[in-house]
Amino acid sequence: MAPRKPDGSPWTTSDSVRMHAWFRAEAQRQLRQRDHDLYGIPLDGRVNQPVRRGTTTEWVVNPEWSKNRHSGKDREALEEKLWTEFCSEPRDPDAELAKIGLAHQDDPLPPGAFAMQSALAPIVEQNRVLIEQNAQLLELLKATRSNGKGPAIERADDGPLPVSLRKRQSALTQPIDAEATT
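Below the sequence we write its predicted structure tokens.
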């Protein structure tokens, strides 16, 4: 869910992310205040306390505080509730950000970046096709190595292979050649 401006357009990504971070902190603050009011847990949310033992001070967990402190699920639920209420109606980003002491911030990508993305789309598609082809070749190679009965790989004679590739090719073709001669 994303906030919308009064004209119906979405907020900029950076403004939306910053506002959502504020709601996350607000949910945490509200739950810590609740824990403090109901159970006496310090506002910083720590559930350990100092205990003097002789001349030393040790920090131990207060089991009463620990069992009554809010959980991460509580915070996530409250954060989602606050964010959903906020996004339920159109709001002016400048006014809303000003309420929490922030100013409008443009997205880090300049407007021309979106045009660049569309210009790069053919290259991205070409890379996707190459990745798929490499995955198919890898599967073929794995099948050949696993049982030694995979299809023979034909290649044009472009000269000698590097030593590491010659070893791989000879290891792949030996089981196939061995079966062909028997």
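Helices lie at 13-39, 63-68, 72-87, 93-99, 112-147, 163-181.
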